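Quick one: structure tokens for this chain, please?
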Amino acid sequence: MTKLQILLIICSLAFVYLIARTYKRHKISLATFLFFFIGAIVIWVFALKIQWLNAIGITFWLNRWADLIVYFSIIILLYCIFHIINIMSKNWNDLTRLISTTAINEAYNENKEQIAQFENSKELDDYVFNIRVYNEWKVLWNTIDELVKYWVRKMVFINDGSKDDSLEILREKKKQYPKCLMIIISHVINRWGWAANKSGYAFIKKYAKELNIKWVVWFDPDGQMDIKDIKTFQNAIEKHKNIDLFLWSRFVKGAKSYDMPKSRRIILWISKIITRIFYWVKVSDPHNGYRVYTLDAFNKININADWMHYANEINEQIALHWLKFIEVPVNIRYTDYSLWKWQKNSNSWKLWFKMIYEKFFWE
């Protein structure tokens, strides 16, 4: 048996172990497991074809035992790197959990009387808006005014350690609109996108009964989303009584994306393909930020991500819990501010790396 055969057989066994462990942690579907398992078997069978392997061995300069040592060293080095990343990620998540728990408790104690006294009287009072905030002072004033003008009265803002005047603006708006239930959860230090959403998620999940809500809305304050689209969501909710989750889409009939860069369209198309391969969820716009959940579906979803790849985990949870969803057309306004703030194309590479890491290596 040649060195390359030994290497391929060991790698295929390691891959089967990795994919089996991933399936056991409910991170992939049975269909995905079978797809990769069959792929590993194909590699195993391929390893037995000595004439093919000799050609590949020559191509990759694997002609001596010293070459095999180099390849194994690279594999071990990669394992050590992922092990270190795993430890760092756990420490990061533990710190986030501590900061989030403290912020949630403080927010509830500050607002529990107002929560208890608040009575639903408007159409949108059955909805609570979860809105993360990080250094949004340029647009935050206008966003809150637009929400209130459209009769949104229940809002959970998560100030994720903003270094500008965002927290002061939130407090000022809370005083300006006393008839609104504006809950401010404030992280003492910045923990990134989903860590902020996670705090809002945990707060709403814990106090949903006291908030007296039926629907949870994800909304961003950067001016990209249009609050008027909530009417489109409401129409879809009225029409589809058995749907668990309503997702925005920039690519279904009726949607409009103003000034979307061509590079963004390409990245989103690639993301769509990756989402179908890894999560078996057929969505046209996988990184959808404008979502409306039924409370039942919201309580089923469990997210661990601290960074922007939380959208991947939501798609994963949709498949895991067999949640029924439809995509809703929205009007998205791309601005220099939103593209600079959250929408950098370079973030896509980080998202894809985090997706693969969280899928196969995160415990």
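Strands lie at 127-133, 154-160, 181-187, 215-219, 245-249, 256-258, 291-294, 325-329, 331-333.
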